[in-house]
Amino acid sequence: MSHDQQHGLPITAVQLNHTAVYAQDRELSAEFIAAILGLQVGDPIGPFLPVDLGNGVTLDYYEKRDEPVQPQHYAFLVPDEQFDDMIARLEAVGVTYYADPSHTEPGRINRLFGGRGAYFDDPAGHNMEIMTRPYVRP
Fold first, then answer.
1. Is residue 131 within 8 Å of residue 116, measured between CB atoms?
2. Around Cβ 111, how many Cβ atoms within 10 Å?
3. Quick one: CA dihedral 60, 122, 28, 24, positive or negative?
């Protein structure tokens, strides 16, 4: 019997609730991703500026000015019918998107797993991904 089963909590009940996203300017980065994804920035909670993704997960933007921000990767599963609008918003603000995570195919999207996807940098240098189909896991 696993540790989780001993406490009556099935492993499937574990969900990501929030994660801190470091940025040089929390407002700039939070407003950017919210605008691209068609979301809203919430009211500050202490040092955090939240963006609610709508599935119970919040990105809590945290300002980190004392040292460089280590770039991370964040992938967002988005509705297919909103993908074109998100690409148009990236184009409208002059942010290049790419078909690949290494950013070698500018201005192109991918068609992985029967969906569409693209990668782009946010103002803090994080590698953001939008995709309409989740990755197929072995």
1. yes
2. 11
3. positive
| Listed residue (36, 59, 39) closest to 48, CA to CA | 59
- Tens-binned pLDDT, residue by residue, of the chain (138 aa): 444 455 666 677 788 999 999 999 999 999 999 999 999 999 999 999 999 999 999 999 999 989 999 999 999 999 999 999 999 999 999 999 999 999 999 999 999 999 999 999 999 999 999 999 998 888
Contact in structure between 48 and 56 (CB atoms under 8 Å): no
pTM score, whole prediction: 0.89
Q: CA–CA separation, 131 vs 49, rounded Å?
A: 24
Q: Which two tokens stand for residue 27?
A: 């407002």
